[in-house]
């Protein structure tokens, strides 16, 4: 007899995906609602499975029910079972749906002697709660979703998936330079500010095939001279010239900080983590979103936003904290995407006189499950992330 896994569809798609990957059933029965279908939740699950090499497009059925009707649930699902082309051995994932849907699913499928499983979010294991007098030990769920798979599970489409490996490779190739900039940031600040002001007015299409940059800057430190030499700028007195390509243009306008956070997360986290940078994706409404650094660990999503502005560049508390928190709140409220977030910045005016992050900023960020990383006083970024995730290593 073929195996059929019954999935109750809700905003939380990950438990259904990991349970499907665990059992690898022959057929999927999604019990869903008009609201969840309107949000595309079932299709998001199917798309994520395809990404993992499990195509259920021709091996699934959807039954829509009213989430608040026990009798309606039983009637609709029983009708599907009676009309199914063959008999199935059912396993039921009770995790999703509403509480009434879970009750109805248990009531209906217990008469079939079906196995019932439940995933206690956010743990990566499932419980087998029945029979009550012979409880089993929790069963580990081994599947771990990548950043792209996690976003797909919530209805997002990664637009630049084919470029992500290249971004990682570029960041790793520039690692020595990136660490040099971070270690000498305060000494390099005037030069970085000058370069940013010179390059910021340029457009992406101007640098796509190379742009002959030329500008005047008076070097005042050996660190500045070493930086420009390492970047292969030609020098003629106080004039510096270089053919700038898009990768240089992005890097020198602040991309180096994104690289630095990517390198820190990659080094600090266990190999089971998936870390990406410069992810561009469309949300379920078609709006484009850009993320500096994203990573998944144990089927949870984390976001790192990087800001290299300083107070003298219009930064400080205006570095985008309100805008970032608003964006994060919209992701959670509109699409159920709930990453824990970090905002890493070199701005000095987020600090009080004692060099600590201002308490009202900590409180505001905390309301959005976000931590501020003050890079001017926190030099060991790897250590910060190791401490954050030491229990998961």
Automatic annotation (TrEMBL):
InterPro entries for the chain: Card1_endonucl_dom, CARF_Card1, Restrct_endonuc-II-like, tRNA_endonuc-like_dom_sf
Occurrences of domain Card1 endonuclease (ranges): 251-356
Domain Card1 CARF: 5-150
Pfam family, one: Card1_endonuc
Alphabetized GO MF terms: nucleic acid binding
Protein name: DUF1887 family protein
Organism taxonomic ancestry: Bacteria, Pseudomonadati, Thermodesulfobacteriota, Syntrophobacteria, Syntrophobacterales
């Amino acid at each position: 007899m073929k195996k059929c896994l019954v999935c109750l569809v809700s905003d939380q798609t990950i438990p259904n995906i990991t349970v499907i990957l665990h059992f690898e059933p022959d057929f999927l029965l999604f019990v869903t609602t008009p609201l969840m279908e309107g949000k595309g939740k079932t299709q998001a699950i199917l798309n994520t499975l395809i990404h993992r090499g499990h195509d259920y497009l021709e091996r699934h059925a959807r039954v829509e029910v009213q989430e608040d009707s026990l009798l309606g649930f039983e009637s609709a699902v029983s009708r599907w079972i009676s009309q199914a082309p063959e008999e199935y051995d059912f396993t039921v994932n009770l995790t999703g749906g509403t509480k009434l849907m879970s009750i109805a699913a248990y009531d209906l499928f217990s008469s079939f002697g079906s196995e019932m499983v439940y995933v206690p979010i956010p743990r990566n294991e499932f419980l087998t709660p029945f029979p009550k007098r012979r409880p089993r030990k929790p069963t580990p769920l081994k599947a771990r979703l990548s950043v792209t798979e996690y976003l797909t599970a919530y209805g997002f489409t990664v637009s630049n998936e084919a470029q992500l490996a290249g971004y990682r490779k570029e960041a790793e190739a520039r690692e020595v330079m990136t660490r040099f900039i971070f270690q000498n940031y305060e000494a390099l600040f005037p030069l970085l500010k000058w370069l940013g002001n010179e390059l910021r007015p340029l457009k992406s299409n101007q640098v796509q095939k190379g742009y002959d940059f030329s500008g005047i800057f008076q070097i005042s430190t050996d660190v500045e001279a070493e930086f420009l030499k390492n970047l292969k700028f030609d020098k003629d007195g106080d004039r510096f010239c270089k053919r700038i390509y898009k990768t240089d243009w992005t890097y020198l306008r602040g991309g180096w900080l994104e690289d630095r956070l990517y390198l820190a997360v990659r080094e600090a986290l266990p190999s089971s983590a998936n870390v990406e940078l410069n992810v561009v994706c469309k949300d379920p409404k078609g709006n484009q979103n850009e993320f500096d650094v994203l990573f998944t660990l144990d089927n949870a999503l984390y976001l790192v936003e990087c800001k290299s502005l300083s107070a003298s560049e219009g930064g400080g508390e205006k570095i985008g904290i309100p805008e970032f928190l608003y964006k994060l709140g919209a992701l959670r409220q509109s699409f159920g995407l709930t990453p824990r977030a970090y905002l890493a910045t070199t701005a000095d005016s987020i600090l009080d006189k004692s060099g600590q992050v201002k308490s009202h900023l900590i409180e505001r960020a905390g309301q959005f499950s976000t931590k501020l990383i003050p890079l001017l006083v926190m030099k060991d970024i790897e250590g910060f992330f190791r401490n954050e995730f030491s229990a998961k290593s």
